[in-house]
Amino acid sequence: MSDKRIEVTIDGMKFYVRGNDNETYVKNLAQTLDEKIKSIYNSNYRLNQVQTVILCALNILDELEKMKADKIDIESMAVDEKSMVEKIEEIKKLNKKIEELETNNKNSISKYSDLKLKEKEVDEKLKKANESNVDKSKEIANLKEDISRYKAQLKELDTKNNNAQKRIIDLSRELESLYDEK
């Protein structure tokens, strides 16, 4: 690209600017500078042309420094934004982990409830089994008492039977002796 020569007017003076920039861009810059100079001159008419241009240059430098500070602030904000984005991502991951833990907790609570119900059922079965065992133990105790009573009755009957047999034997002997006597 070759240097272009662009004619501009600033504060009533004609200038030729050489460069590779777009002509419209250069003319807009010159027009903005011209407006700033006129604005400063109109607000303080006691200034001569050089003073007005110097004050305008000072204002432009002030704006430039403020822009640099703003740029630093923006860059700092960009770094902060990156940090915030990272923290947001970390928060999202932590929220996902919390959701997983809550789901696990709900499942654990559900399993715990199921186990409690099963424990209750088992307890009821054990209670019934214990009641049945108590009833059977009572029945066994009653049967043992019956057996003891029957054994006593059997013993008594054996004794009576033995006595009856002895009596029969004695009577048989008496009968024999009576037959023998006759």
Could you explain the architecture of this structure?
This protein has helices spanning 23-43, 49-181, and strands spanning 4-10, 13-19. It has 182 residues and is mainly α. Strands 1-2 form a two-stranded antiparallel ribbon. A hairpin with a 2-residue loop joins β1 and β2. α1 packs across α2 (49-181). The N and C termini lie far apart (177 Å).
What's a concise summary of this model?
Helices cover about 85% and strands about 10% of the residues. By secondary structure, the protein is mainly α.
Properties at a glance:
182 residues, mainly alpha, two-stranded antiparallel sheet, 2 helices, 2 strands
Strands, helices and their partners?
Elements: E1 4-10, E2 13-19, H1 23-43, H2 49-181
Helix pairs in contact: 1-2
> Count of DSSP E strands?
2
Shape: rod-shaped
Assembly context of the chains: single chain
SSE topology string: EEHH
Distance between the termini: 177 Å
